[in-house]
């Protein structure tokens, strides 16, 4: 069973690693397509440019998804902390003897 990370364990390093990994995979896919198909220079350039756009989109998608998930976990933990914390009762100053 996999243990879920808490929101306090959010790592910018992990975010960068996964984001750049997604971009690298998109560029790798474009490179493989160019190598396998061996298109004309114009088509190859179009595939390469689509690969760059795909890499940017993949990095944006991954980073946005990870950031939103972390923010949602932080908000959920804050909400749980509010409902769990005991209410402190204060004495009314008018009841002193």
Automatic annotation (TrEMBL):
Transmembrane among keywords: yes
Region span, Disordered: 75-97
Transmembrane segments: 12-37, 43-62
Keywords for the protein's UniProt record, in alphabetical order: Membrane, Transmembrane, Transmembrane helix
Biased composition (Basic and acidic residues): 79-97
Protein name per UniProt: Uncharacterized protein
UniProt source species: Hoyosella rhizosphaerae
């Amino acid at each position: 069973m996999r243990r879920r990370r808490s929101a306090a364990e959010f790592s910018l390093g992990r975010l960068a690693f996964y984001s750049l990994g997604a971009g690298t995979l998109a560029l790798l896919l474009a490179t493989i397509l160019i190598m396998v198909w061996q298109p004309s220079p114009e088509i190859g350039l179009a595939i390469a440019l689509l690969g760059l756009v795909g890499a940017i989109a993949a990095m944006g998608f991954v980073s946005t998804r990870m950031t939103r998930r972390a923010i949602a976990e932080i908000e959920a933990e804050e909400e749980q902390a509010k409902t769990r914390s005991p209410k402190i009762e204060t004495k009314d100053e008018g009841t002193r003897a």
